[in-house]
Amino acid sequence: MATILLADDLAFIKMVQKEILQKEGYDIIGEAADGLEVIEKYKKLRPDVVIMDITMPKMDGLNALKAIRQLDPDARVIVCSALGQQQLIIEAIKIGAKDFIVKPFDPPRLATAIQKALK
């Protein structure tokens, strides 16, 4: 069973993601509310996949992605963004994100993104 770390500053988003992913059989091993926290949790937990919002306090998702990729070049990170953030999504893919999900996301798309990241 793949382990997942969720990072979003909105508790509601993490709750929805957690519900969807647990139904799919994934193990949510941690949650973070900002970019600095997700890096710390990544170091401790070493999840199979990180699902991370691009827009977060303290450190945004792009800088957190860079830091995680420096710690682990093989890190599998899926970024989430709101509609209209195409430039940030392109930047995240260039940095090394495995996929992206646009909010509000649909459950099948979330599951597909994780399957793609794990390949």
Please provide a written account of the structure.
The protein is of the alpha/beta class and 119 residues long. It has helices spanning 11-23, 35-45, 61-71, 86-95, 107-118; strands at 3-7, 27-32, 49-53, 77-82, 99-103. It has one domain (3-118): Rossmann fold, CATH 3.40.50.2300. Helices cover 48% and strands 23% of the residues. The protein has a 5-stranded parallel sheet, with helices on both faces. It is globular, with a radius of gyration of 12 Å. The two termini are 14 Å apart.
Give the CATH level 1 class: Alpha Beta
Number of helical elements: 5
Order of helix and strand elements from N to C terminus = EHEHEHEHEH
**Category from helices, strands and their pairing:** alpha/beta
